[in-house]
Protein 1
Amino acid sequence: MDNQFFKNIEKKTGVNMKDVFELANSLQNADFRDEKTVRHVIRRVSQIANKPVSKEMEDKIVRTIIKDGKKLDFNTISQMMNKKSGK
């Protein structure tokens, strides 16, 4: 893809695309049945998105991913965070 495309995304969102790609690469072989791994990913996504996640919300996301078998991706976490904030 065009480098300018990613620069435009960074400018509009404030999210560093290098961080996003590094996180995406780390997810490829991650074990999402492991609570420690899931918590690490949630915290990293929160940090990249600059959107704090409370302990309560983190626990809820972890339970959902591990127990309910939901796929872990940016969309899943974003949807759960937005439900909490009423968006």
Protein 2
Amino acid sequence: MLKMMHQKGVTSQMLFTAGFASIGLSFASWMLSKKAEAAGIDRADRWGIFIGEWAPTFFALGTAMRMEEHWRGTDVEEMYEQRETMRTGSAMPVG
């Protein structure tokens, strides 16, 4: 999944930004629901919690994407490809 997201142009910075935006939107939705709706504080709390639960997911994806970006910038990908080639026996190992 991360490889596909990386190929589509999603960066770790975008995911971290989405995490922080989720925190802000959580607070904003709580305030708006508390003031604008007659449903009371219980509904406002549910809106705030619902949106706030997205933040850890975005931060986790951002951290994983940062690792993916780092690995793409090193020889680790080449090492994995060589290991897979050796494991399947489709080619002789180099070196």
Protein 3
Amino acid sequence: MNKYNRVFAIVIDSVGTGAAPDADKFGDVGSDTLGHVGEAYQGKLKLPNLQKLGLSNLRDTAIEGVAKAEQPLGCYGKMTEISAGKDSMDGHWEMMGLPVTEPLSYFPNGFPDELLAKISEFSGRKIVGNKPASGTEIIKELGEHQLETGDLIIYTSGDSVLQIAAHEEIIPVDELYKICEFARSLVNGPEYVVGRVIARPYVGTNKDNFTRTANRHDFALKPTSKTDLDALQAAGIHTVGIGKINDIFSGQGLDEVYHNESNMDGLDHLDNVMAKDFKGFCFVNLVDFDSMYGHRRDPIGFGQALMDFDERLGQVLTNLKEDDLLMITADHGNDPGFKGTDHTREQVPLLAYSPSLKQGSSLGIRKTFADLGATVTDNFGVSGSKVGTSFLTELN
């Protein structure tokens, strides 16, 4: 018999909690997303719901403004990534029992000419950019050029991504998606294996008001083998993906999916799913922390997004039934107080709560993100990947 009839896992995208043990391999020693956001707020960061679940308890040093709870309501700990990269795909796949063990292709000097030539020929458009860049900065730099010429803006980052930015009035979204699907077909191996091809539509009339839209779409590498989502689905457990979960897993292992316009829209979807006569696993990604504030190195915006999430979290907690389990975690860091504009290699929070939980306790430092998926499959009596270690029995 299931311990919990419904399990909800919310990934607050990029909300890391301090440099991982191998951060030196990524140039990320000293990164601490939550710590630096707290410092930027100088004690005025208020996260009462996350605080009472144990958000600061899982840290050696409390987040400034978020004291350690004397008696946390939830179980708390942190997880360490074993995947080769620090991208969203690596983090989410590992959570579902499929660590990315081989490094994907990265392009610190831009993409090879032969690859771009094929995209140009397919699209009938010239290509500009072709360098690592912040998404907002590159459309500021080249957006007006695109308005005049219709050229494709292609760029990358410190992650394994090929991103194509296009003004929606110059290159319609459907056309951009087709170009991205073609680009995806070129980077599935064996020569180039890219984690995600990302469509980055934007609108506006000039560099001072260009704005990226919610029509972003991630064309991810298909999972290289079965994930815990597949195992759950095959066992007849209903699976729901909210936000970019569908993109990251290429739709595999998901029965029901919802696209997010924003964090708040994603939480609206979660509220609706919770209100249904639903039993199974609901996997949620809230990406605004990452895309709007982490990459833009905006700690104040990041903190406000956390406070907005915390306020809505109160409603989620109220909606939980006695036989529901809620887990909150992240897929990597993206420290807005750190150098550069890329993701940061950090450990991530792990908070677990159910109204039936008798008392909160420490879950310690988990050796892999896969412990989350192992706990979900264990709860539903399903044989999963066997990569991680379930902490189900620690939730008392």
Protein 4
Amino acid sequence: MAATDPRPGWPAGRWLALALAGGAISAIALLLAFDPNAAGNPLPPCPSQWLTGLYCPGCGATRMLHALIHGDLPTALAMNPLLLVALPLMPFLLLEPLGFAPESWKPALRRLGDARPWAVVVIAYAITRNLPWWPFSWLAPG
């Protein structure tokens, strides 16, 4: 006979959701306290850009989040347009793995969470944001 834990508790997905929420709150507090555009800030630079001189798909993400938290949507769009557009989808991507998805949403959430289309978009974005001519040049972080 398998032993059961007599203590009531949350499923693992709920603990993970709580940890993610705590991480998000901590990140918001950090970005409210520090400006990633200011010289001498404690936030790290992008290691990919520092090593290669090329913009990775995440370059500008910290500055984009900082601008978004401060309500500056044009600057946020200039820093990382892909992340700004994808950000509202992220809570939906977490619904199923955390166990919060209604049964009727699961097929759509599985398609949305399929890594293959995301990989194509992210790789294409990484390539095009490093092209020096218009219209691709506006994809590089401002």
